[in-house]
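Entry, Tuesday afternoon. Goal for today is a structural model of the target with S-adenosylmethionine bound, before we commit to ordering more compound. Inputs were pasted exactly as handed over by J.K., no edits. I checked the ligand SMILES twice against the vendor sheet because last time a stereocentre got dropped in transcription.
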Amino acid sequence: MDLHARRADSFGAQAEAYAEHRPDYPVAAIRWALEPLGDRTERLDVLDLAAGTGKLTAGLVAEGHCVTAVEPNEQMLSELVRRVHGVRALPGHAEHIPVPDQTVDAVFVGTAFHWFDQEKALPEIARVLRPGGVLAAMWAEPATDVEWVRELEQVSASSVESQRHDPVSIMAHPLFAKEERATFPHSHRRDSPEAAIAWINTHSRLIVIDDEERAAINEKMLAFLHQRPETSNGPFDVPLVAEVFRTVRVSE
Ligand SMILES: C[S@@+](CC[C@H](N)C(=O)[O-])C[C@H]1O[C@@H](n2cnc3c(N)ncnc32)[C@H](O)[C@@H]1O
């Protein structure tokens, strides 16, 4: 298995910690993503693809939508089923979505689009969307314009690089209109430096490295967080930015 595939499949080993420590998504980002559907008042049929433990799924359910969650990793999907109720949860991949043609109004992808084989996933997403339906890919990432957050990112760097997405060509495909992008401020409450470290340890760049390297990085992070005034005095908020790309399925 190559490194990309190993990382894409790595999250299950940390499923419980993932559910416990990863951030959710701002409701403003979800609403912005759905704007192209207009002022429809009925419940929308929404697919959360690569749903993980349900961080985004829970936000979609709270907005009153009829949500189907699809996730390939068994441990991640079990956490989702345990924690998010009122959702249809199905095992499956973005490249082969277990949902019939033209049955959803919107497909959401939270912090996972970069793991897909996009040449296969985009036509699959287009297949399940109704004409005019929305595809929204979003990421909730540390706000690196804040000095201590940027430094924490540097301190937590491992021998495996962060898996960045290409913000421009990400959804370029003849079945989709040109994408639009927006960002939303967000934050992630942490009770202690240890809780911040637990969150950072749920990233694949730290899951797939060996124990010795991870222990050394964790030690550096702990020293850093105990020494910074922003993080060494009780609970703190980590500034995040939610970055959203939305596009609309065009008719053939
Ligand atoms: C970083 S997690 C994001 C989970 C969730 N959407 C969230 O926002 O917390 C990435 C997820 O993508 C899933 N994944 C990886 N490759 C996938 C693929 N080809 N199709 C669907 N899901 C995939 C992983 O199993 C993992 O649960």
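The CA atoms of residues 27 and 216 lie 36 Å apart.
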